[in-house]
Amino acid sequence: MENDLLQVKNIRAGYAKKIILYNISFELHKGEILSVIGPNGEGKSTLLKTLARQIPLLGGTVLLLQKNLNTWSSLEFAKKLSILLTKSSIPQFMSCRDVIASARYPYTGYFGRLSSDDQKTVDECIELLELKKIASKKFSEASDGQRQKVMIARALCQKPDILLLDEPFSFLDINHKLQLLKVLRQISSKGTSVIMSVHEIDLALKISDRILCVENKSCSLKTPEELYANNDLQKLYSLASSDFNPYLGISELKASSKIPKVFVFSDSGR
Fold first, then answer.
1. Cβ(41)–Cβ(219) under 8 Å?
2. What φ, ψ does residue 81 adopt, rounded to 5°?
3. Residues ≥6 apart with Cβ < 8 Å to 50
4. How far apart are alpha carbons 196 and 45 in whole angstroms?
5. DSSP H or E run through 189
């Protein structure tokens, strides 16, 4: 379809001869937010790395804008797709602004000089993620949450058609998690598509157009409404229905079976 930025057809993903995922198929529409969920170790990060060409595809076909993923040059590929991994190597003595600006190099000339338009894009991403106060700070001196926001800004600064995020809410407090949700909605409304692996099920249910459930080396594609209706989340994570609230997307502890003891203060006999 013309609206499909990415088409994944029966791919196998893994490392060397160890296949972690079999026969994975889905498509990504323009401006869509697709969350990837599932238990730890099921291959969520492996899938993202495969789509980003960080590790080789072990089988099947991936089409980016109707063109085979492996036929894109590295430079043109970087203009179409960017990825934020849970662990990224960044020189510790760079400022936060320099880290963000490094995403513009696919667009620079031979000498790697940033144009005024490049600098404007950097400023826009700093503004979008509210990073003005730490822009000149060394990346090594920023907190974990601040570093995470800088790396998200860097991925956005690449101005990709598709943004891949591996656990983007890690290290963020509730305020900045909500801010990121707002940013993702904003960029998706302008046509950027997002694929992100998440553990925060409640946030995934709130923002996603569709959700890719990864389990037992395979996957299934569902809408948030379908996950609510069919108890699929409980099955995916092997949760007891009495311990899980599907509408909030959170697990709850069972009430204590002990009889509560209450001591009443009499307010000095009055």
1. no
2. -145, 135
3. 11, 13, 56, 57, 62
4. 9
5. helix 174-189
Q: What are the structure tokens assigned to 203, written together?
A: 């946030």
Q: How many CA atoms lie within 13 A of 176 on its CB side?
A: 18
pLDDT bucket at 117, cuts 50 / 70 / 90: very high
Please tell me the distance from the alpha carbon of residue 27 to that of residue 7, in angstroms, as a whole number.
Answer: 4
Contact 212, 37 (CB under 8 A): yes
- Residue 211: half-sphere exposure toward Cβ, Cα within 13 Å: 26
DSSP per residue, 98-135 = HHHHGGGGGGS-TT----HHHHHHHHHHHHHTT-GGGT
Amino acid symbol at 231 = N
d(CA 122, CA 100): 7
CA-closest candidate to residue 253, choices 264, 267, 239? 239
Do residues 97 and 157 lie in contact, with contact meaning Cβ atoms separated by under 8 Å?
no
Q: Please classify residue 137 by burial: count the beta carbons closer than 10 Å to its beta carbon, then call 0-12 exposed, 13-18 middle and 19+ buried.
A: middle
* Distance (Å, whole) CA 252 – CA 230: 19
Q: Which pairing describes strands 162-166 and 193-197: parallel, antiparallel, or unpaired?
A: parallel
Terminal alpha carbon distance of the chain: 77
Residue 197: beta bridge partners?
A: 36, 166
Q: Give me the sheet containing 210-215, strands edge to edge.
A: 81-84, 162-166, 193-197, 33-37, 210-215, 218-222
**3-class SS of residue 206:** helix
Position 241 pLDDT exceeds 80: no
Q: How far apart are CA 208 and CA 233, in angstroms?
A: 15
pLDDT (tens digit per residue) in 122-152: 999 999 999 999 999 999 999 999 999 999 9
